[in-house]
């Protein structure tokens, strides 16, 4: 296993009785031990982390003063995320949120990836989490985690799918990224083209589209409306459209017909899009007229590890992708703090045609992997909250 990381209190918030490095000075009262109640509280905050399709693929368990995190096979997107990219990024966002909750109590977290993280392909395709097979073990630490973010930020951050006005370049004051990660900008004209290609790819791959439909919750009558997945409200669907579309997610005959129609339309759009070149790039000093589009890019390690076969799907060690997920969550929380909103567009990194166009536009090297694409801007209306399995009933 490659990397472990330490996460630890917001800047300047040293716990009572501790020095900034977490040791207790002579004569001072040591910080009280972390209790299981504390860990359960941190787990609840972490439950508000973002995940692709709001699958919440993590299964945390408090064991002997640590938190063991297993993956729930039923919550892994078998068709849409075969490289486990989104799973690993979501786990990273969860870990970062957990560390922010620990930081609010003046603590840190040591993250220990287990060898199961390198063997995600051994997971069954279906079923519940295996509690005996965690992929990460989180150990509380006395040394506090320096983060500017709070549990309120984690709870208040939302994905925004409405209109976004232009905003200043997010990258000027974003928290520094770990070595090997970069945020690159793609222009609006190219992004529109790539989003269209990516959307068409999703629609035209029946298994991927069916998986998306499985996570839609288009009516409050859906039994999992307040638990997981993407609701009509989150997707900003007008009520008449949601009422019309809701039966598509529940009645097999309608569902099959809708997937067939989406496949035909998707293939047609894809065929046209693939023959068209990317629009000409804008002049370097041309101001943004819409949201900013950013791509989180990782550099693959120069020397391949002993788990070369297993790393091959993404070309990156899984623990590094978890770290990238932590950085992504910090970036999205930073946008939230700045009054900005984020709209991810994973379809651009899912579709081979869109990825190829993106790589060309950004001039990526073979050693660089685009992990996440998202738009960021000033929202013109608030975004509705998404459900979570771990939310307290209201
Ligand atoms: C790795 C990752 C990929 C995502 N990809 C998309 C996407 O392609 N399109 C989208 O609308 N939302 C995407 N999301 C956002 C999730 O749908 C969202 O986090 C989830 O529904 C919970 O909603 P919230 O972020 O408002 O809490 C992604 C989130 C993560 C962590």
Automatic annotation (TrEMBL):
Bias-annotated ranges (Low complexity): 7-29
Domain of life: Bacteria
Region (Disordered): 1-36
Stored InterPro entries: Nitroreductase-like
Protein name according to UniProt: Nitroreductase domain-containing protein
Source species taxonomy: Bacteria, Bacillati, Actinomycetota, Actinomycetes, Micrococcales
């Amino acid at each position: 296993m490659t990397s472990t990381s330490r996460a630890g209190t917001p800047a300047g918030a040293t716990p009572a009785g501790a020095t900034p490095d977490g040791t207790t000075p002579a004569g001072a009262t040591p910080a009280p031990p972390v209790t299981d109640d504390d860990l359960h509280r941190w787990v609840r905050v972490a439950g508000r982390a973002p995940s692709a399709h709001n699958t919440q693929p993590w299964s945390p368990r408090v064991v002997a003063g640590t938190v063991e995190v297993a993956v729930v096979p039923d919550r892994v997107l078998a068709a849409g995320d075969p490289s486990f990219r989104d799973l690993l990024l979501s786990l990273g966002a969860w870990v970062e949120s957990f560390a922010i909750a620990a930081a609010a109590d003046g603590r840190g977290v040591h993250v220990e990836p287990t060898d199961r993280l390198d063997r995600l392909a051994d997971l069954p395709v279906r079923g519940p989490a295996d509690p005996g097979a965690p992929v990460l073990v989180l150990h509380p630490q006395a040394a506090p985690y320096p983060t500017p973010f709070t549990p309120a930020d984690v709870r208040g951050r939302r994905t925004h799918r409405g209109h976004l006005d232009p905003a200043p370049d997010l990258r000027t004051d974003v928290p520094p990224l770990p070595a090997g990660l970069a945020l690159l900008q793609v222009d609006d004209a190219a992004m529109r083209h790539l989003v269209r290609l990516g959307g068409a790819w999703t629609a035209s791959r029946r298994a991927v589209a069916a998986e998306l439909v499985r996570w839609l919750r288009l009516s409050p009558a859906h039994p999992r409306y307040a638990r997981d997945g993407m609701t009509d409200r989150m997707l900003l669907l007008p009520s008449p459209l949601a009422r019309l579309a809701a039966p598509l997610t529940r009645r097999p005959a309608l569902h099959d017909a809708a997937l067939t129609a989406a496949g035909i339309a998707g293939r047609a759009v894809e065929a046209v899009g693939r023959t068209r070149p990317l629009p000409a790039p804008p002049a370097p000093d041309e101001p943004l007229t819409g949201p900013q589009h950013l791509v989180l890019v990782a550099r693959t390690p120069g020397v391949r590890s002993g788990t070369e076969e297993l790393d091959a799907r993404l070309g990156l060690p899984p623990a590094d992708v978890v770290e990238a997920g932590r950085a992504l969550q910090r970036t999205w929380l930073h946008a939230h703090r700045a009054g900005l909103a984020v709209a991810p567009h994973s379809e651009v990194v899912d579709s081979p045609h869109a990825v190829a166009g993106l790589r060309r536009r950004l001039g990526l090297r073979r050693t660089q992997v685009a992990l996440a694409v998202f738009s960021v801007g000033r929202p013109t209306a608030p975004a509705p909250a998404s459900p979570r399995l771990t939310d307290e009933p209201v």
